[in-house]
Amino acid sequence: MSTNSTGSEAGNKGGMKGWWGNFQRSMEAKQQEKQKADEARSIGKVWNAEKKKWEFYFLDAERLEIEEMEKVKTGKKVSTSDEKERPVKDRAYYDLLEVSTNATAADIKKAYYKKARSCHPDKNPGDSEAAAKFQELGHAYNVLSNEQLRANYDKNGINESNSQETMEVDVSIFFNVMFGSELVTPYIGELWMSQMADSFMTQENALTPEEMEQLDEEARRQVMEEKMKAMSEESEFKQRKRRLECALHLRERIKSYDPKNPAPFIQGAREEALKIVSGSYGATYCKTIGFSWMVAAEEYLGFEKSFWGVGGHLARWQRSAASFGGEVKLIGAGIKAVSAGSRAMNKVESLQDEKDEEEASKQMQQTIDEGLPAFLEFAWAVNKRDIQSTLKDACKKVLQDGVPKEERLERAEAIRILGKEFHQVGVIAVKSIKFDAEDIKARLNVASMATMAKAQGQEMTEQDQKDMMQQAKGHVTDGPKKSENVGKSSEEGTNGPKSTENES
Predict the structure, then answer these.
(1) DSSP string, 201-218
(2) Which of 66, 321, 389, 481 has the CA that lies 20 to 30 A from 239?
(3) Contact 423/290 with Cβ under 8 angstroms?
(4) Using alpha carbons only, what angle is made at residue 483 by residues 480 and 484, rounded to the nearest 5 degrees?
């Protein structure tokens, strides 16, 4: 009995000793990993989760990578002067834009904007020939910039009976008018909501509706899964490209910052912010963009310069708190939108037995109008979350770019200042604005008209859109305005959904 007890104690001691040894080795390994990570960060390296190693990141290298990926996706090469022209049925549109039949989408877009500027109606008032040339350029661009229409044109030439050529709809125009401002587009890129709508509109179907009907349920499910997978991959690529472009623009914007004399940069940032808030939804954009930049910069500076990274942790907590608040608002707005949709559907059912069609239509329109603000509020909650996520990654790219640490710290300070000015101007400009149905319907009308104008090869400036908004509001409203803010131009305070918080 004594022998067994002694052996058991020895076994326990041996087990404890082995466990302690493993624990010590594990702690030493983690300490070495931490030391290695600290050394990598100190020289500007970032962790590549895919490759599972520390490496330098370069913005320009990713730009080249994206460009190469685009070439592979389109299956086209950049045209050169000595490259043999690709045979096509008709080359009138290529000759009109003065591009090769091998031209990429970027080549075609660049050529179109270069030639369209010279004959734009605004620059040639009263010149019917210039106006006609502008229309022809727009038509050629609409065909060659769309992969399906271009392929059909290359194979069959001009099809005068094909109305789709002249009515190719760019849904991004609609969303830009509804939610956009030309002044902030370089900073935030194309909204995710617009990208998804465009994917649904332009995704090529392998089968016709008639062919889909002939498939069994399992086959249709597989076709839809493949389509959704393709859309998901395309969306992921577009988002990556968008964040890169936002980062490149931000890097260019802060080049003028001089840490020894920051006053001109601060003044320029404030003046730019004031221009933005004078446009559609400008104050909302300024607040959201400014907050995102400011917190991203403070987080970087906090981890690099403050004791134990306290400043970085504080900025990260601030962003997390704002993100949580945004999630709550998104859920709340979603519930309101669903409720509004349910009310509209219930109204449709209740009016089915209504004999007076005019009265039924009037009640249905009233129900829809009552739900429009809820739908707009939800859309803005989605957009705000999208913008914050995009700018967080864009700032990260700028601050992880493979340049000396001193330069990265200067960039962070410049971004912090730029964000602070945008945020302060946005907070001051935001008023307690509550959109009503008339305002939303006016913007919907203008967005639709702008989309159709672009489809016909015409361009509408932001000032054109503002003027049309005024006309549309005057057309859709009867009697006095419901609110002193409703019906004002964007310069007078139409800056976005009701907002009283000061963070983002």
Answers:
(1) HHPPPSS-HHHHHHS-HH
(2) 321
(3) yes
(4) 90
Q: What residue type is assigned to position 397 of the chain? A: K
Under 8 Å CB-to-CB from 398, ≥6 apart: which residues? 59, 247, 250, 251, 254, 411, 415
pLDDT value, residue 480:
37
Question: Nearest CA to 383 among 269, 230, 501, 496?
Answer: 496
Query: Beta strands of 46-162 (E only): which ranges?
Result: 46-48, 53-55
Give the per-residue pLDDT at 258.
96
Maximum distance among all Cα pairs of the chain, rounded to whole angstroms = 114
Q: Alpha-carbon torsion 360, 366, 371, 377, what sign?
A: positive
DSSP 157: -
Listed residue (34, 40, 38) closest to 54, CA to CA: 40
Strand, helix or coil for residue 189: coil
Q: Which two tokens stand for residue 172?
A: 């991004």
C-alpha to C-alpha distance for 191 and 163, rounded to whole angstroms: 29
Beta strands in 218-359 (DSSP E): none
CB 191 within 8 A of CB 386: yes
> Counting beta carbons within 10 angstroms of the beta carbon of residue 109, is it exposed (0 to 12), middle (13 to 18) or buried (19 or more)?
middle
Of 235, 143, 146, residue with least CA distance to 197: 235
End-to-end CA distance of the chain: 73
114-128, 240-254, 315-329, 419-433: which is most confident: 240-254
CA distances from 259 to 267, 293, 300, 417 (A): 14, 18, 17, 11
> Quick one: pLDDT at residue 493?
38
- The whole-angstrom separation of Cα 181 and Cα 282 is 7
- The one-letter amino acid code at 228 reads M
Q: Rounded to an integer, what distance in angstroms lies between the CA atom of residue 177 and that of residue 447?
A: 5
Find the helix or strand (DSSP H, E) in which 335 lies: helix 310-350
Name the pLDDT band for 233 (thresholds 50, 70, 90). Answer: confident
Global pTM value: 0.65
Residue with tokens 């400043």: 311
Q: Which two tokens stand for residue 233?
A: 């991959």
Q: What is the DSSP string of 217-253?
A: HHHHHHHHHHHHHHHHHHHHHHHHHHHHHHHHHHHHH
Give yes or no for a contact between 290 and 422, defined as CB atoms under 8 angstroms apart.
yes
